[in-house]
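Record pair follows.
FIRST:
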Amino acid sequence: MTQKPLILILCTGNSCRSHLAEGILRTALGDSHRIESAGSKPTGYVHPLAIKALSEIGIDISGNRSKHLDEFLRQDVETVITVCGNADQVCPMFPGQVNRHHFPFDDPAHATGSENEQFVVFQRVRDEIRAVFGAYAAGRLDEAKAG
């Protein structure tokens, strides 16, 4: 059996953007790919407001964990997608890596104000990620059908 292609989504802290993207892309691509996220300096937790923002649209990432990109250095990573500038700068090449994309988004973890005000930022970034990664997933699925 052929191993599913691994798409690795990287950011610095692996607490917000990469997890939002991982959940959205996994949902959009279904079972055709393995989707993981990691960080160059992982915070060690998945931000509760990221979990809440995705649960609003029916995606559960409550079981996700914050991981270091080193966990994937010995794996065949087909595509690397960075979602922040810092991760793009420190991103190593992975064995078997074919594709690399950079889709930068604001870091909702830096949002200030009340929890409700912060959550509005998480919702905005989630919707931006959903638009970009939804289009990316549609392209990958079209590619697979044509291939």
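SECOND:
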Amino acid sequence: MTAAETPDETTAVLDTTPADADAAVETIHREMTAFARRARASAGRMHPQLSLVSYTLLGHLEERDGRRATDLAAHYALDKSTVSRQVSALQRAGLIERRVDPEDHRVQVLHLTEAGRHILGQVTESRRAAFRERLAGWPEEDLLRFAAYLERYNAWPGGAPDEERERSALRDTYR
């Protein structure tokens, strides 16, 4: 089988049958499911107070220098009540705080506290170390290709054929 040299090229020549492609899609599905399960399971080992979804929300708040809860729900395709429960738990733990939006005083924006930044930094470093350990034997070319494939996969702009089913899968992944 020959394929394009880089994953961002739009053309690829594949010597496969439809059955081979179907088997590859099934393998991708199985492996991504295993990845999601492993990520959820390892989150508790990284920090007992920080679930995978909490870690993800904290990271997003840090990247964006704060966000409204409704923005988080929309970004992650999660129900507002799910985000509200997560936000309440993070606030009770002292990891985030609500601040009045200076541009619209009716709106509250979620921001990390110093404790939130500290824990996020600790967990981020632990996760990076775990990834480095797991990928230690990989050649640099494989790492670069894998990173590019993941970016390409996650950048796909199309919607799922059944958006509710996709949202349900996301909710199950991040609970």
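COMMENT: The radius of gyration is 19 Å.
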